[in-house]
Amino acid sequence: MLNILVVDDEKNIQDLMKDILTDEGYYVDTTGSITTAKDFIKKSSYDVIFLDVWLPDGEGLDLLPFLKENSPNSSVVMISGHGNIPIAVKAIKEGAFDFLEKPLSTETIMATIEKVEKQIKVKQSLEYFKEKEEKQIEIIGNSPKIVELKRQIEKVAKTNAWVMILGENGTGKELVAKSIHYQSPRKDYPFVDINCAAIPDELFEAEFFGYEKGAFTNAFTRKIGKLELADKGTLFLDEVADMSLSSQAKLLRVLEEKQFSRLGSNTKITVDLRVISATNKDIQKEVEKGTFRQDLAFRLSVIPIYVPPLREREEDILLLANYFLRKFSVENKVEPPILSDEVKNTFLNYNWPGNVRELKNLMERLVILNSESIIYNKDLPPHMLGNVKLEKEESIPITIRPLKDAKEELEKQMIKKALKVYNNNLKEIAKALDIDLSSLYRKIKQYNLEE
Length: 451
Known about the structure:
Elements: E1 3-7, H1 11-23, E2 27-31, H2 34-43, E3 48-52, E4 54-55, E5 58-59, H3 64-70, E6 75-80, H4 85-93, E7 98-101, H5 106-135, H6 144-157, E8 163-166, H7 173-182, E9 191-195, H8 204-209, E10 210-211, E11 223-224, H9 226-229, E12 234-238, H10 245-257, E13 259-260, E14 269-270, E15 274-279, H11 283-289, H12 294-300, E16 303-306, H13 317-331, E17 338-339, H14 341-349, H15 355-369, E18 374-375, H16 382-385, H17 403-421, H18 426-433, H19 437-446
Parallel strand pairs: 1-2, 1-3, 3-6, 6-7, 8-15, 8-16, 9-12, 12-15, 17-18
Antiparallel strand pairs: 4-5, 10-11, 13-14
């Protein structure tokens, strides 16, 4: 039940509200001045404070700064018999939850309490999910490269420097970004992630800046953009190197000015945010090719952090495998299976092209599908047993030729191998190769691999 304080110099208002709220099971204190209200607030914690605008020793608004410092979690509801719109607007701007006019009815009071309770539940849910997410961002591993990575994260997190995270797909770049955020002074504010590769040019401004109702066709309501959502927190730009040059130009301008307007509005919005970006590409090569702006690269990668692939942290492979086995066994309410020595050997000799993501997905599959207490090589996907080496007839002759051609030939052979291993199951192949289905269809057609 809520603890409530009523601050009003009219005794009949105090008694009315106390009777109504006490009958509903709430704990209620009443007082008639700013001075005595401060004494109550210093001694007790209140969920809701009903605060009169005019009090014998000052204006109710004068109490708001004190409340922000001494009772920041209280929802303040201003009450007045004068219906003063400017005062109501000022009160809301200074942090009041709501503004009610006298005379107060039981319906009005209870409707306000109901709104406060909903807000408290939402806040508690957000805190629960935040706490849950913080527990899930632990970086598992004791290898020298991971120990160094953790050291870098701890050092960088304390600063406000912008970071670019580099590494292959599946290495855990988003995990690193969240780890930096939750160890930083911004941890109590939002972590807003956005996949830059998934945003078409024509939707860039709507996604990043937001829009007002009626700004364009189908804009039926106002939408807050990602930049605004990330205010005082962290904006994570995943796959940043896949943005178009036009989108890069718009992003650079906003990041430099830290100001923008929603579509359909001329009002400038100023944001305070930290930007962490990530890519699996070589940014310097992208700059040299002309596909990424050099000035944006300089702005984003004040501090570059490299996340090593799984094959470069061999000491962590079995540690991670057992961690995921336990995790998914708990989630699925089964006894965790044991890795046989032959499987451990296979894991240590496998190249892990999909990195930690591939290992994680495999462990989940083994927990769900394996009916025995021990996992053997026969339970593993066939392609793992050959250490993902291409068969002799599929090997690529090492001849000097353009790198583009060599890359295309390797792609072709890898897809051809995957089609055979996964028996043409395109969804499984797309998952294993870490590409979307549409890209896989296109490449199969491009390399004439259709049956």
